[in-house]
Design a protein that fits this description.
320 residues; disordered C terminus
Length: 320
């Protein structure tokens, strides 16, 4: 019976028409839900390139004016990381300029040593990350060739670097990567320094560093103890529940500086889950690499905001 169900203005809507409309709407909603579920399933199948289990991460918001010289940075952070590594229940600990999925690093122009540079403004760029020697162990990132960093890779020693497999594929496919030197600018505490030529000593697996939809871009890593910086993330691999060591780690931080508190404390499982939520809500919008003049980008602020807060990220000419 095709009765009038309701009216829209002066137009009557009959039962049959309403059922058709409601049915079409239901099918549309089901299709949308199906797409969301499929997108979520695809994200859960993503190979991140690192192990997410048993890791606690946090930031240390050290004032940028605290250290006047690079050796002061090392003198503060190195004992702290060593004490955290020695805690019961801790397997390893590392300090770095960022963590997988939450990359905080620089886009750095570079060249290969021995090759002529006709126009410095047209140099290729790569992501640059600073890490301590246990970074790859802590995150379970495979070293495919060569070696990782060691405790002897410090300021004053032979500059070294590691590249990921994406870097090799893009820039070094026709040469032996372990026989190459990369020419980059030294990162000073306040200004960019002179060119340096770190030797490539190892090749690591590519990691998704800027979200689960990141395509694992070319990346260069250098030892934090050779290029000390104030603002770091600390990551701790544990034998059991990572949250169970948070109080002990906090006590170590407090013993180093009673006024310094751990910030943005999360497990890596939480980082992965939050990253998945952001991708499902925001889609695949990704920004390009910051490739020029040591510009740094990270979650929690635009590159310009971060540069304004940290004078180290500004070159001698004031360019970013």
């Amino acid at each position: 019976m095709n009765e009038i169900l309701f009216t829209i203005g002066d137009w009557p809507v009959h039962t049959g028409a309403a059922l058709i409309c409601f049915g079409a709407l239901a099918l549309t909603l089901l299709a949308g839900a199906g797409l969301v579920i499929h997108s979520f399933w695809k994200l859960t199948q993503v190979d991140l390139g690192f192990r997410r289990d048993h890791i606690l991460t946090f930031n240390l918001p050290v004032n940028f004016d605290r250290f006047a010289r690079p050796e002061q940075v090392t003198a503060f952070y190195r004992p702290l990381i060593e004490k955290v590594s020695a805690l019961p229940g801790v397997e390893s600990a590392t300090a770095s300029s960022g963590t997988p999925l939450a990359w905080r690093g620089w886009g750095m122009p570079f060249s290969l040593a021995g090759q002529p540079v006709d126009d410095p403004s047209k140099l290729p760029g790569t992501r640059l990350t600073l890490v301590t020697q246990d970074y790859f162990r802590t995150f379970g990132i495979s070293i495919l060739r060569g070696r990782g960093f060691t405790a002897t890779d410090v300021e004053g020693s032979q500059p070294v670097a590691m590249v990921n497999e994406a870097f090799v594929k893009k820039f070094l496919s026709n040469v032996d990567p372990l026989k190459q030197r990369i020419v980059i600018r030294q990162l000073g505490l306040a200004t960019m320094g002179p060119p340096i030529e770190p030797s490539i000593v190892g090749i690591c697996r590519a990691v998704r560093n800027r979200g689960m939809r990141d395509e694992s871009a070319a990346e260069l890593s250098v030892p934090l103890w050779q290029e000390p910086m104030q603002d770091v993330s600390v990551s701790v691999r544990t034998h059991g529940d990572p949250s169970s060591v948070a109080n002990s780690v906090s006590a170590v931080v407090g013993s180093a500086d009673a006024d310094l508190a751990m910030d943005n404390v999360r497990t890596m499982d939480q980082v992965v889950d939050e990253c998945g939520d952001e991708n499902r809500l925001a889609g695949a919008g990704q920004t390009g690499d910051a490739q020029a003049h040591g510009r740094r980008e990270e979650p929690g602020g635009t590159a310009r905001q971060r540069v304004e807060r940290n004078p180290r990220l500004v070159g001698e000419s004031g360019q970013r």
